[in-house]
Amino acid sequence: xxxxxxxxxxxxxxxxxxxxxxxxxxxxxxxxxxxxxxxxxxxxxxxxxxxxxxxxxxxxxxxxxxxxxxxxxxxxxxxxxxxxxxxxxxxxxxxxxxxxxxxx
Length: 104
Hints:
This protein has three helices and no strands. By secondary structure, it is mainly alpha-helical. It has one domain (8-98): Helix Hairpins (Orthogonal Bundle). Helix 2 (32-56) packs antiparallel against helix 3 (61-91). The longest helix has 31 residues, at 61-91. It is elongated. The N and C termini lie far apart (65 Å).
C-alpha cells in the first residue's frame, strides 16, 4: 500500500513555525548558547524548505545543497562554542549584554 505524499504547504507551514521560533529566540537573546541554538533552528527551517521543494520538483540539487548547509552549520556551531568557552573561562558566564571582551 502506497501512502500519499505530504502536500507542500504542510512543509512550508512547519518551516515557518520553526523559523519563527528561531527568530523569536534571537530577538530575545540573553545567552550565547541559546543564540547559537536559534541560529541552528533558522538554518534547519531553510533546509526543510530546500528539501521540500527539491522533492516537489523531483530534483536532487536542493538536497545536495542541504548537505553543504549542514556542514556549514556544524562548523559555525563549533567555532561559536569555542569562542563562548574561551569567554566563559575569563568571566565565568556567557551573557551577551556585556559581551565586549573581544573588542579593541
